[in-house]
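anyone seen this seq b4? input:
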Amino acid sequence: RKLLASYVVLREGFDVLFSDVDVAIRPGFVEDLAAHAGDIVTQSNVKRVPNNAASGTGPGTGTGDVVLPPFDELNSGFYLARSNTRARAAFEDMLLEYRKHRALNEAAALNDQILWNRVLKKSCARARRTGGVGSQAGEAECA
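predicted toks r here
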């Protein structure tokens, strides 16, 4: 239902900042988020571990964090969606995908996180093929 609620707000011309209740927001975070140029800005469910290899206590080379799989799972529990044609189209695609699976009685197995990842990855792939990915949307931003 949060996809539908967000879509209705986007369709009315407003941007959507959505957060599940278990997300802590630090001071200045909304401003940082708004500085990103994407149509839909989200976070991934990436697990990071400190890289302590230099001391012999962790993986890697000792510089920076190590990202563990899954590398590309987007979190549907937190996002900023801008009210523009591309973001609305992505939400329409998610709602269509949901209706398709609901009609096949598969909705119980297909939650919003799965829809979110499936549709946004297809949108990114389509944008790459057509040159629609902006200069700030590289592999990490459009996984």
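The longest strand covers residues 74-81. The mean pLDDT is 73. kinda curious what u guys think
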